[in-house]
Design goal:
Blueprint (H helix, E strand, L loop, with lengths): L3 E2 L6 E3 L9 E3 L3 E2 L3 E3 L7 E3 L5 E7 L2 E5 L8 E5 L3 E3 L5 E5 L7 E3 L6 E3 L5 E7 L2 E4 L2 E4 L3 E3 L5 E5 L9 E2 L8 E3 L7 E7 L2 E4 L6 E2 L3 E4 L5 E5 L5 E5 L2 E5 L9
Parallel strand pairs: 1-4, 2-5, 3-6, 5-9, 6-10, 7-11, 10-12, 11-13, 12-16, 13-17, 14-18, 17-19, 18-20, 19-23, 20-24, 21-25, 24-26
Antiparallel strand pairs: 7-8, 8-9, 14-15, 15-16, 21-22, 22-23, 26-27
């Protein structure tokens, strides 16, 4: 779409009924609107400002976008956008339980995805790429779980360039390296945090680690604390663990 600049006051951008072409709205060129409603029923995309943004999904394909740097407005309300894309700075994406979008593209910067407070399985299928709660994501560097069980399943030799935060309580959250071959390496710094293969800034709030029974998992620890370690199809519990080597 061409550049559109709204006037003063509260402004809304709406599409007329019968619009048939999916819309892409870029907030770097569409300026001054407090409310943006995409054409209903289409595969629309909303692109955020090139600023530090917080996206909150409050309904299906709808929510708010907030930043503190933009002169006007600082909070946008949007609807009918199954696809959302961050700007060139840092973007955080948060969800009200039960409401999602189809896809999230963090774009450049350090971008964080916060999962709903549900039982979640995160599938990291490539570096900074994956899916959770029926949402596909790309260019997401940091993953944060909710208040229920979060399991992070990594494809072979894949991960994220930032950090995995399982959320609280840590005891129910799992790093699953069962698809790794050769073995993943985990270095425990505390009972619930440390560094791990293909995690640029490590992990926190993780109480369980799963490896592969064939390739194994190498785990070293500087703490004498109870933590849970599993192999696929075989459970092992250690209270004073320093290294597990693959068979």
């Amino acid at each position: 779409m061409p550049n559109i600049v709204a006037g003063s006051g509260t402004d809304s951008l709406n599409f007329l009924a019968g619009w048939t072409i999916p819309a892409t709205i870029n907030l770097n060129t569409t300026l001054g609107f407090e409310v943006i409603n995409g054409p209903p029923g289409l595969n629309n995309t909303l692109v955020g400002n090139n600023l530090n943004n917080t996206w909150t999904i409050t309904a299906v394909n709808a929510g708010t976008l907030e930043n503190t740097d933009y002169p006007f407005p600082t909070v946008f309300t949007f609807s009918n956008f199954p696809n959302i894309t961050g700007g060139s700075a840092n973007d955080t994406f948060d969800f009200t339980p039960g409401f999602t979008v189809t896809s999230i593209n963090g774009s450049t910067g350090s971008n964080t995805l916060l999962a709903p407070n549900l039982v979640n399985t995160w599938n990291i299928t490539d570096n900074n790429i994956g899916n959770v709660a029926s949402i596909s994501f790309v260019n997401i560097t940091d993953l944060t779980g909710g208040t229920s069980d979060d399991t992070f399943v990594f494809a072979n030799q894949k991960g994220v360039s930032g950090r995995v935060d399982g959320g609280i309580p840590a005891t129910t959250n799992t790093l699953d390296y069962s698809l790794f071959s050769p073995a993943a390496t985990v270095v425990m710094l505390t009972p619930i945090s440390g560094t791990a293969s293909n995690l640029g800034n490590g992990y926190i709030n993780i109480g369980n680690i799963t490896g592969n029974i064939d390739s194994g998992v190498v785990i070293t620890s500087a703490v004498r604390q109870k933590s849970n370690f599993y192999f696929t199809n075989l459970q092992l519990l250690f209270t004073e663990l320093y290294t597990i080597f693959p068979h």
